[in-house]
Design goal:
The chain is mainly alpha-helical. 74% of the residues lie in helices and 2% in strands. The longest helix is centred in the middle third of the chain and has 36 residues, at 98-133.
């Protein structure tokens, strides 16, 4: 098991390093000088030279990339100050450390991702299991139809309607806002409830359909039919034999979705005016803040890679044969 995780971790480090290199060289190969983006259109040659020197932009790009990697591990000194590890540079817009800005925004994204995941996993998997257990009945057809409708909806549309009805018109739910859970757990839950519900609608549709198809496939497997022929209770056959066999594809889907959500749910954060990582990424693009955008991309890619390692570990627990891969 440890060798399995060690191989996956080394592979993940190589992937993150490759992504950082590609991202860095692409950004610094832009026609516009990074110093020009940091200073603005009215900067003269002398001001650009000072910015280049302060930010280390006057060195060759490979040397800059090496310093960038060293800064992530051991910190880095700029003329504008020392940047503690993990150093992702300073923002072009406000001269704030990129890493501190990410840490400031990330609790909002983390709360949105975890809360939404709990909702769509519980509801989506339960609906899929119920549809599989009632295969071919009116219940199955009704739940399948609702899943198709949910899959066709968009967050920005549902979110706008939900804000208008549930918050502005009927005053049933608190207006979405992030409050640290350590300061006010009830305020945190109330402020994130509507974004969780809206975000989970599309995921519920995906998970219900995935769970239904996998459960139906597993219920037709030979080992499940053998367990049923031995006289085991239907509940035991359904949960102990069929459900465990259907878990692997669902775990894969959870890892992909959580990794993406940890990188920032841009549409959801903009719809509900939540200042998370996704909104920070969009703001960095519009403001041409290269260090901030690079930091967010590297952080998001790392979150996706870590989620995939966790999925691999769960695979090894569910199916011991995976440990030999």
């Amino acid at each position: 098991m440890l060798r399995f995780l060690w191989r996956r971790t080394l592979g993940a480090l190589v992937i993150v390093l490759a992504i950082s290199a590609i991202t860095f060289f692409l950004f610094f190969a832009l026609p516009t000088e990074p110093a020009q983006l940091a200073c603005g259109k009215n900067c003269g040659p002398e001001a650009l030279a000072i910015i280049d020197e302060n930010l280390g932009l006057d060195e060759p790009v490979p040397v800059q990339y090496w310093h960038y990697l060293v800064g992530i591990v051991a910190g880095r000194d700029f003329d504008i100050g020392h940047c503690d590890a993990p150093c992702l540079g300073y923002s072009f817009r406000n001269n704030q450390p990129v890493w501190e800005t990410i840490l400031d925004r990330y609790p909002t994204t983390l709360s949105l991702a975890f809360g939404g995941a709990v909702v769509f996993l519980l509801v989506g998997v339960s609906i899929g299991m119920l549809a599989a257990a009632r295969r071919g009945t009116v219940v199955d057809k009704l739940l399948s139809s609702l899943s198709l409708i949910g899959n066709s909806l968009q967050v920005y549309f549902v979110g706008t309607i939900a804000l208008w009805l549930l918050v502005d018109s009927w005053d049933l739910i608190d207006r979405p806002a992030y409050v640290p859970i350590t300061e006010d757990p009830a305020g945190w839950f109330g402020g994130m409830l509507l974004p969780w519900l809206v975000l989970s609608i599309i995921f519920i549709a995906n998970y219900s359909r995935m769970t239904r198809s996998q459960m139906i496939e597993q219920l037709d497997e030979d080992h499940v039919r053998t367990a049923r022929a031995k006289g085991l209770p239907a509940r035991t056959v359904f949960f102990r034999y069929a459900w465990r066999g259907a878990m692997a594809p669902i775990v894969t889907l959870v890892g992909i979705d959580l990794g993406s959500l940890f990188g920032g749910a841009m549409v959801t954060e903009f719809t509900f005016t939540l200042h998370g990582l996704g909104r920070l990424a969009v703001e960095s693009v519009t403001e041409k803040d290269l260090p901030m955008l690079m930091g967010v991309m590297l952080f998001s890619c790392t979150a996706i890679v870590i989620a995939n390692i966790i999925v691999d570990a769960l695979y090894a627990v569910i199916d011991p044969r995976v440990r030999l891969a």
